[in-house]
Amino acid sequence: MHIIDGNRIISTLVTESTEDTSAKIRVVITDSPIDITVSGTFVEACIQCSDFVLVFATDDCLFEEVLNITLVDFCNSILDSASLFWPYNTGVFAISGLIEPNKVVFEFLGDKQWQIEVLDNPTIYIPLLSEPSGSWRQFKFKRCFRISRLASALGTPSNS
Known about the structure:
Helices cover 0% and strands 52% of the residues. By secondary structure, it is mostly beta strands.
């Protein structure tokens, strides 16, 4: 697991956001097969985890920032995605650390710490009951990564 050097990431705005849809960007990672379109306007980071890449992109919307998280494989298939946002809250993204073999800890939405765990196999998921507040996903019964909000800098998941 490693953070992909920002010099290897090329992003191009494909469509701008409208009242009904979010912006889309094309993300290309040089020296890799990754060439995919995801939600967002600015790539914050790309992290390679085994045969997958987590793409973190923001919408660049002042006072209501959205973090779009997309898991892609090297065949350029979107395996899973989620968004973090809270109305009237600014979001500054920062990676806090990588926990081998499959966890990313980061900050977003003020001082909140979050954790993404990339799962070895898709897992059954109960929509609306399995996610912390502030996160949103499309209605599906399988997930390839898990989101949790951390209670402390020690990396302990909170109950919400």
